[in-house]
């Protein structure tokens, strides 16, 4: 297993492991929370060289940052720590809304630092763009956090090309985190060219299509119990005829993976990794065995013929269903 390093951003550069670890599912959304499993997975990730860890204040809410903070205690220097603000929630889980006001930015950062038990955040993202607050004001407050030494690098998540330009003019943006996989490629039209023009790295979340591309999801099972939101209307790609159509695509990926001697998930991750040295995906898991499988993707070398076969097997417009049931929170 050979996890290399990659550099996100050119003006404000952050070197990370080429493969990161999304920690959200350890605390919420994808089945029953598993603090011990999550902690074990983080420790194993660090041992394997997966040092780019991703969390957010809303996960739990708040408990995922605490889990990550405890897990990296004593190993902080090994970690490139990323967290996010902007999806405001109450302690009981109620979603308040998207908040990009400067005062909230400052408070959210201080609260995250306390929960994580660290004195700085390596990469601090705005989780969703607040349409009611000019992005220049939000990033202006984030810039103050850099000047105060609380944050080293700034990021955005699910931001449009125009928003990225405006933000980058206020302070260099190191990375954009957005959904990107064989199943989600719309950013290739406008967003990816802007990132490369401005020298901004890409951090794909859900690079395995929320588990669909692993082959573990079936028409009648595979999600992790009632607490797993993937089976809700929140994720249309997992519903009815859309799921049936998408599983046909997964079967094609499985065939190519079998010929390559790897799993479908490893093939899907290898495809994302092959999209550029400025791309560092963060597949999420709370189980050591899946982490180890994901890490194996780093050793899957894709030829031009392999990439062409995948393009043919999963055409961009073949995937059925929107990414979210409510796309209104996505900056466009």
From TrEMBL:
CDD domains linked: AKR_AKR13A_13D
Protein origin, superkingdom: Bacteria
PROSITE patterns: PROKAR_LIPOPROTEIN (PS51257)
Entry keyword set: Oxidoreductase
Name used for this protein in its record: Predicted oxidoreductase
Pfam families xref list: Aldo_ket_red
Annotated source species: Nocardioides exalbidus
GO CC terms of this entry: cytoplasm
Gene3D superfamilies in alphabetical order: NADP-dependent oxidoreductase domain
Signal peptide: none
């Amino acid at each position: 297993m050979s996890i290399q390093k990659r550099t996100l951003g050119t003006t404000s550069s952050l070197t990370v492991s080429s493969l990161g670890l999304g920690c959200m599912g350890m605390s919420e959304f994808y089945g029953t929370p598993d603090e011990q499993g999550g902690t074990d997975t983080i420790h194993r990730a660090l041992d394997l060289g997966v040092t780019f860890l991703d969390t957010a204040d809303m996960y739990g809410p708040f408990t995922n940052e605490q889990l990550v903070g405890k897990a990296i205690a004593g190993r902080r220097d090994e970690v490139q720590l990323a967290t996010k603000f902007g999806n405001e929630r109450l302690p009981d889980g109620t979603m308040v809304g998207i908040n990009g006001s400067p005062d909230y930015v400052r408070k959210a950062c201080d609260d995250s630092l306390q929960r994580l038990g660290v004195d700085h955040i390596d990469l601090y993202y705005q989780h969703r763009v607040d349409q009611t607050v000019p992005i220049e004001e939000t990033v202006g407050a984030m810039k103050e956090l850099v000047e105060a030494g609380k944050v080293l690098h700034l990021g955005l998540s699910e931001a449009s090309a125009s928003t990225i330009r405006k933000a980058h003019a206020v302070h260099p943006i190191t990375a954009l985190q957005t959904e990107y996989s064989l199943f989600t490629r719309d950013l290739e039209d406008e967003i990816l060219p802007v990132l490369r023009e401005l020298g901004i790295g890409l951090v794909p979340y859900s690079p395995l299509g929320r588990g669909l591309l692993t082959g573990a999801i079936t028409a009648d099972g595979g999600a992790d119990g009632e607490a797993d939101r993937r089976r809700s209307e929140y994720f249309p790609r997992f519903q009815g005829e859309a799921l049936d159509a998408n599983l046909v695509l997964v079967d094609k990926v499985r065939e190519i993976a079998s010929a390559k001697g790897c799993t479908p998930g490893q093939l899907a991750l290898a495809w994302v990794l092959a999209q550029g040295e400025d791309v560092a995906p963060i597949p999420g898991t709370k189980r050591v065995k899946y982490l180890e499988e994901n890490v194996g993707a780093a050793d899957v070398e894709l030829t031009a013929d392999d990439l062409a076969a995948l393009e043919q097997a999963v055409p961009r417009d073949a995937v059925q269903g929107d990414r979210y049931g409510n796309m209104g929170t996505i900056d466009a």
